[in-house]
């Protein structure tokens, strides 16, 4: 059961522009959402999170937006840098339950 | 503490052999998770421990798989009678339980190839 979906397997943007990665979920019980970044041959690295009581969380160049009514979240990276090129996973969880991941979006930032 | 560590990083084995992986979590973390990731997919939950107690197991965890965390610190994941379909990246993560904002931190993974 694919409770967390990332429908875009890849995204390519120019350096300095905005990257927008999208994620949809189906389980309304999820109350904590995270974005992880993964480089080849490494484990996922935690990037940013948001709880269901908020609709926006910002950390430097990274902002996560949550639209609970649409069961949708997005990650904005501004400005994008070549070092941001990686696979980004969206994840969702609820208290004391396992975390569910999307299939990932490969971001390529071109110089 | 430098984070979650996993050993080995790579393992090649023949079908039918047993393999064991180890995970050392961040020292103050009481929860430890095992995931499996195949190409083009996100990590899939296998099982998790709170201290030494195994609290949840996914239906993905067949009876050939067993995980332990005997002293509530490091954990091992054993796969018996490996099959080619077991080839994947096995990821370990740890966290500190404490309500809504539980963030899991991942190790580098063990890549298993079953020939």
What features would you describe in this structure?
The complex is a heterodimer of chains A (111) and B (115). Chain A has 111 residues and is an all-beta fold. Helix content of chain A is 0%, strand content 54%. In chain B, 34% of the residues are buried. The model of chain B has no long low-confidence stretch (mean pLDDT 92). The interface between A and B is medium-sized, with 28 and 27 residues.
What helical percentage do the residues of chain B reach?
under 10%
Low-confidence stretches of chain A: none
Run of helices and strands of chain A? EEEEEEEEEEE
Find the count of extended strands of chain A (DSSP E, 2+ residues).
11
What tags apply to this protein structure?
heterodimer, A: 111 residues, mainly beta, six-stranded mixed beta sheet, five-stranded antiparallel beta sheet, 54% strand, B: 115 residues, seven-stranded mixed beta sheet, four-stranded antiparallel beta sheet, 0% helix, globular
């Amino acid at each position: 059961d694919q409770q967390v979906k990332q429908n875009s397997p890849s995204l390519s943007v120019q350096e300095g522009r905005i990257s927008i990665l999208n994620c949809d979920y189906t389980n309304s019980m999820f109350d904590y959402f995270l974005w992880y970044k993964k480089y080849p041959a490494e484990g996922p690295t935690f990037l940013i999170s948001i709880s269901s009581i908020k609709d926006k969380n910002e950390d430097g160049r990274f902002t996560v937006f949550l639209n609970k009514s649409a069961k949708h979240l997005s990650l904005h990276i501004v400005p994008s840098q070549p070092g941001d090129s990686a696979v980004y996973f969206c994840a969702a969880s609820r208290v004391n339950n396992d975390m569910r991941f999307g299939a990932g979006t490969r971001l390529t930032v071109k110089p | 503490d430098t984070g979650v560590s996993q050993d080995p990083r790579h393992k090649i084995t023949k079908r039918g052999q047993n393999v064991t992986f180890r995970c050392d979590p961040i020292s103050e973390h009481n929860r430890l998770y095992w995931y499996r990731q195949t190409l083009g997919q996100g990590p899939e939950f296998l099982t998790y421990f709170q201290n030494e107690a195994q609290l949840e197991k996914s239906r993905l965890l067949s009876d050939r798989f067993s995980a332990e965390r005997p002293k509530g610190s490091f954990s091992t994941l054993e796969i018996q009678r490996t099959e080619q379909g077991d080839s994947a990246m096995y990821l370990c993560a740890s966290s500190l339980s404490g309500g809504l904002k539980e963030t899991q931190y991942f190790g580098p993974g063990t890549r298993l190839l079953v020939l």
